Amino acid sequence: xxxxxxxxxxxxxxxxxxxxxxxxxxxxxxxxxxxxxxxxxxxxxxxxxxxxxxxxxxxxxxxxxxxxxxxxxxxxxxxxxxxxxxxxxxxxxxxxxxxxxxxxxxxxxxxxxxxxxxxxxxxxxxxxxxxxxxxxxxxxxxxxxxxxxxxxxxxxxxxxxxxxxxxxxxxxxxxxxxxxxxxxxxxxxxxxxxxxxxxxxxxxxxxxxxxxxxxxxxxxxxxxxxxxxxxxxxxxxxxxxxxxxxxxxxxxxxxxxxxxxxxxxxxxxxxxxxxxxxxxxxxxxxxxxxxxxxxxxxxxxxxxxxxxxxxxxxxxxxxxxxxxxxxxxxxxxxxxxxxxxxxxxxxxxxxx
Length: 352
Hints:
By secondary structure, this protein is an alpha/beta fold. The protein is 28% helix and 23% strand. It is built from 9 helices and 14 strands.
């Protein structure tokens, strides 16, 4: 039996937020960096690691902390031909860039969190970059289902708190249209919800010196800081590096390539996918909730068809009537669902 400890809030001593990069990355917290390919997400992390390793000023011009180590878990870039040359071009202290060797198997979270914590403690890392995050999530954990991905994020947040390091999760963008930049990263909305700050790398507005922009698309740690412009240029050695151009008047949602209003059907599909992510829902409830969101019945029915959702009628013995449910067959089936997944239903006795 779980034993909980009751604590009065008045007995908890308040402490200030400790920043690694003020208003962008907090120590002891999770953060996420989202962006499409060719926006320089990995180069941005290398630039930050280089600045932290030598105590250089941060991209917004603020004073950096004392020189600190960073741990980079990369599933896509080879250390010898990509990570080290890029770090050298960025002026990094290579002794403070920790790149663990995984052998034949990538770490799987949350199972390998104890091993990750040992690496952080041994290397005294102030920053952990997991690039890309979903490559380190095991296949049996559905990254699109909030209750599943929280099984990874909750212990990962505990790791960040215990070690007082900032954990930065790098993600690609999903293909599904979203009006808010914070919602565009791959996987469940639970990922960005669990992160205290969300960074968004995107093309910059035309006409300025920057070709890309780094924006804070979500923060739970105060006011959003300004967006920062940057370019990807070649260092004297020929390797690409980040060149910061200063603050720009831009907003992450305005710069998101999918910021245009969605078609009503696309909006309905997106809404229905979210509603069915946790298992079957009664059709009557879905119609009522959709109406509250301004989604007409006909639009909802078309969204059901395009999503590939399925209907199932279940007899309610209590009320002596049938009840219709919709469900998304592509989603994991919850144990507490009101009925078994149709292909798992036991065959009827031919004599009945």
